[in-house]
Design goal:
It contains 41 helices and 10 strands. It is mainly α and 890 residues long. Strands 3-4-5-2-6 form a 5-stranded parallel beta sheet, with helices on both faces. Strands 1-7-8 form a 3-stranded antiparallel beta sheet.
Length: 890
């Protein structure tokens, strides 16, 4: 269909203009036609499910930008296929009659966390509804499962993974197939559950063409698959067995599997195609199943250029995926003979480029130059309306006698505002402008930000196509990014446009509403806290609002030691921001604290020094900056600077005073003054993490039992107070000390540490766990040295001097256990370099204790051992001899 506006916008008679838009009824018609054609194809007597060379036509693709409704469409299609009564009336009845359809929808998004193994299981579970064993596939799957998941019942895996809802009959059907095979092979009844023996006997019988396995002998490739190593590669070929089994079912028991693969862009991102290759293999090996793919971009399987990246590519393999022309509205996706790639609403960047290339053309060549197309594509965010306006602007510039340049399109179109607001009520316009200040929102937040007394305008607004929904989000709604940007930044020429004062008032209302949402939560909610901070910081910074609730929220954020990223986007480089307000300083502080898990501690110290020197924050928050600056300085080995900062905070008596006193105890421990550190620990209480400090003092004495008990008590207190970061830190330290004492016990402790660290951003603690894993394996040869080398690099990048010394102490333990005197001396020398400043100098003493090596007085070590050097030496050396005995017994 021609674009009449474009055609009538120019005197150029050689200009051709095409249009490309879609609607949901057309997509249903496309599916109806394609599925009907598929059913006719597989019903043809010439169709052979084992033909691996015939072209495939069992795919239909709906693609478009994120948020255009692809997942919604996928869900509606799945529901309609499962139950015709759920089909929208305007779609019309399907044309495939009484055929039995078995639909299954699989979300491939990263958030769904589906791997290829779960995908194959989901397909098999869907077919369990047919009520028939599929022995060829089930035997192969059972062999794979027992090899890859030894000792893990399939039923438990399905229940835990949320797959049991697809059908609970699979384990029984698999066991039935195994028992039937054992019986056919005349194996003893007790062997019926031993898949290895059944497989071996079955392969032999298949090779010998025995009559007892005639039912399976028709599957020509079954023996080869059963002989193959049961790994992921082999699993990717098992769908061939599913397809074969489906073709063998009696006519009255058959069903056509329709697989809806949603969010395909997460497995086919055009760069990393490993998962896409496996999924494509499933589609190719199941020609009697039909696949409906929804994703942001078209499938490239029909492009010959992908040879080598995927198994089957090119127009010969996928004739209906190859020709990618922008379909006209009248003939989009109408089944066999038409393209099976249907654009859905907004366009992906690749589709924007192709749209602009074809929208205006002369003699079949794009009229819009490529450099202009790139700018338009980038700024459009896939919104068809923006592309449409850009095309009109291109013609307008040409009418003015100029050649359009990229700069002519480097802005938002004010017309987007008028077009967006044109059919909205005044109240709905107020809500729209208000929520453009927010990254995401719900009806209540939108209503409060707009200052309206009722929800109705917001409820009407969220039904608009430019409002996108993420049902899993903290606040489920957000504006299309281009609409939001245009409303915020383009010149608003509408009659009810807002002044700067209006915008600031809306920002204050939204800010206050966020604070209320956080403060009124019935129980602590970390996700809500972070969400409110992320949006509240941006509003307060951009509109120079008072800190208000941000101060208390910042303390809550810091208190859990989780460190999710918080800082809103800034035009300045991190650490180079111009600090003019308290909010600027708070944004920089929290950003530095979160980023310290990913940056060198020197960078953290520089950023926090800038905040402290600016002196823009209220006293309590300024002390936060001073305290964490002192922590960074301690990590960098600047003990004197750290001590001054910690003392300042401790003397201030504020919220971080107990933590600062703990910091002073740590500094005393670094210097080897253990009595002082232990005495201080007894005064700290929970707020100062007294038990953790005690553990930190006891383990250098070689008293791992007492240290482990202290860390366990600390972990218990953290659990009671709901501080997940502190709980993970204490468990990591407990695993570390027990790794010296007993590798078997350390295994369980390390697993728990990994579990508690999951989802947290605690870089130093993660390194502690890795060092503990080295200690657990100390004395063995393996790859311990290589692992240590990798850890040294990570520690150096992080700028954690204290952790570097701890790693070398762990390596010293390893060499001492092995009795490698030369290697131990080399490690001692390395420790000497790392402790040159005098901090952790007692590590040198411990390293000598481990090797039973005498040494002259260490001038840098002024260690004051709690019960004397001899007792300490004895405990450390006993750890070495105990580990040797353990390894010898093993």
């Amino acid at each position: 269909m021609s674009d009449l506006r474009a055609l009538f916008g120019s005197n150029d008679r050689g200009l051709s203009a095409g249009e490309a838009f879609t609607n949901r009824q057309d997509q249903w018609q496309a599916l109806d036609a394609a599925l009907s054609a598929h059913l006719r194809h597989i019903a043809d007597s010439r169709f052979d499910v084992e033909d691996l060379e015939a072209p495939r036509s069992n795919v239909l693709v709906f693609h478009g930008v994120g948020g255009i409704g692809k997942s919604t469409l996928s869900r509606k299609l799945a529901a309609a296929l499962a139950d015709n009564t759920l089909m929208p009336t305007q779609w019309g009845r399907p044309t495939w009659g009484g055929e039995r359809i078995v639909p299954v929808r699989i979300d491939l998004s990263r958030s769904a966390d589906i791997d290829f193994e779960r995908l194959v299981l989901t397909l098999r579970l869907a077919l369990a509804r047919l009520g028939r064993p599929l022995p060829a596939f089930d035997l192969a799957l059972r062999r794979y499962w027992e090899h890859q998941h030894p000792g893990e019942p399939l039923e438990e895996y399905l229940r835990r993974g949320g797959l049991a809802r697809f059908g609970g009959a699979l384990p029984k059907q698999m066991q039935s197939a195994l028992s039937d095979a054992a019986q056919a092979l005349m194996l003893p009844g007790t062997v019926g559950s031993v898949i290895g023996q059944v497989t071996g006997s079955l392969v032999t019988a298949l090779r010998d063409r025995r009559q007892t396995v005639q039912a399976l002998a028709g599957c020509a490739r079954l023996a080869d698959l059963l002989e193959a190593e049961p790994d992921l590669e082999a699993l990717s070929f098992y769908p061939h067995l599913l397809a074969w089994e489906l073709s063998q079912l009696p006519a009255g028991k058959r069903g056509t599997l329709v697989v809806l693969l949603d969010t395909f862009e997460d497995v086919g991102d055009r760069t990393h195609r490993d998962m896409e290759r496996l999924v494509q293999r499933v589609v190719w090996l199941m020609p009697n199943a039909f696949f409906v793919v929804t994703g942001r971009s078209r499938l490239q399987w029909g492009d010959a250029a992908l040879h080598g990246q995927l198994d089957w590519v090119g127009p010969t393999a996928w004739p209906e995926l190859a020709a990618h022309t922008l379909p006209r509205l009248a003939d989009r996706g109408l089944g066999h003979g038409y393209g099976r790639q249907v654009l859905l609403g907004d366009f992906s960047p690749e589709d924007c480029e192709e749209y602009l290339s074809r929208r205006l053309a002369r003699d079949g060549r794009p009229l819009i130059p490529i450099e202009v197309r790139r700018v338009i594509t980038e700024r459009s965010h896939g919104l068809p309306l923006y592309l449409d306006l850009a095309v009109m602007r291109f013609l307008e510039v040409r009418r003015a006698g100029r050649t359009p340049q990229p700069v002519d399109f480097a802005h938002d179109f004010p017309a987007l505002i008028a077009r967006t607001l044109s059919d909205l009520t005044l109240e709905e316009r107020t809500v729209l402008r208000s929520v453009s200040l927010l990254d995401s929102f719900d009806v209540d937040l939108a209503t409060k930000a707009a200052g309206l007394p009722r929800h109705a305008p917001a409820m009407r607004l969220i039904e608009r196509p430019f409002v996108r929904e993420d049902p899993h989000g903290l606040w489920p709604f957000h504006l299309h990014v281009l609409i939001r940007s245009t409303i915020r930044h383009a010149d608003d020429q509408t009659d009810d446009c807002w002044s700067a004062h209006d915008w600031r008032q809306a920002a204050q209302r939204a800010f206050t509403a966020l604070g209320h949402a956080w403060r009124s939560a019935s129980e602590p909610d970390r996700r809500l806290l972070v969400g409110c901070l992320q949006q509240g910081l941006a509003l307060a910074r951009d509109f120079r609002l008072e800190l208000d609730w941000l101060e208390e929220a910042a303390w809550n954020y810091v208190g859990d030691s989780v460190w999710e990223p918080l800082a809103p986007p800034s035009v300045q480089e991190p650490g180079q921001a111009m600090l003019e307000t308290a909010t600027d300083a708070l944004v920089e502080t929290l950003s530095a604290l979160a980023r310290r898990q990913h940056e060198h501690r020197e960078r953290t110290a520089t950023r926090l020094s800038t905040v402290v020197d600016a002196d823009l924050l209220p006293t309590s928050l300024r002390e936060m900056g001073i305290y964490y600056l002192a922590k960074a300085q301690r990590d960098l080995g600047r003990s004197d600077d750290s001590r001054r900062g910690m003392q300042l905070v401790a003397d201030g008596g504020g919220r971080l005073a107990p933590a600062a006193r703990r910091g002073l105890a740590h500094l005393a421990r670094l210097a080897g003054d253990f009595p002082t550190a232990l005495e201080t620990a007894h005064t700290l209480g929970w707020e100062g993490r007294h038990h953790r400090v005690e553990g930190d003092v006891w383990w250098p004495q070689g008293d791992m039992d007492r240290a482990a008990a202290a860390y366990e008590a600390a972990r218990g207190e953290a659990e009671n107070h709901g501080i997940v970061g502190e709980r993970a830190i204490c468990q990591a330290q407990r695993a570390f000390v027990l790794a010296f004492a007993d590798p078997n016990v350390a295994d369980d402790e390390l697993q728990l540490a990994d579990q508690l660290l999951s989802g947290l951003d605690l870089r130093a603690t993660g390194l502690t766990v890795q060092i503990a894993a080295l200690l657990r394996d100390a004395g063995t040869i393996g790859d311990l040295e290589d692992r240590a080398s990798v850890l040294r690099t990570e520690i150096r990048v992080a700028g954690l001097a204290s952790t570097a010394a701890t790693l070398e102490l762990a390596i010293a333990f390893h060499h001492a256990v092995r009795g490698d005197h030369d290697a131990l001396l080399a490690t001692i020398s390395q420790l000497g370099e790392l402790t040159r400043s005098g901090e952790y100098a007692y590590y040198l003493d411990i390293a000598h204790f481990l090797g039973g090596i005498g040494f002259s007085a260490n001038p840098r070590s002024q260690a004051r051992w709690l019960d004397g050097a001899e007792q300490t030496r004895h405990r450390w050396y006993s750890l070495v001899t105990t580990r040797r005995g353990h390894l010898h017994a093993a």
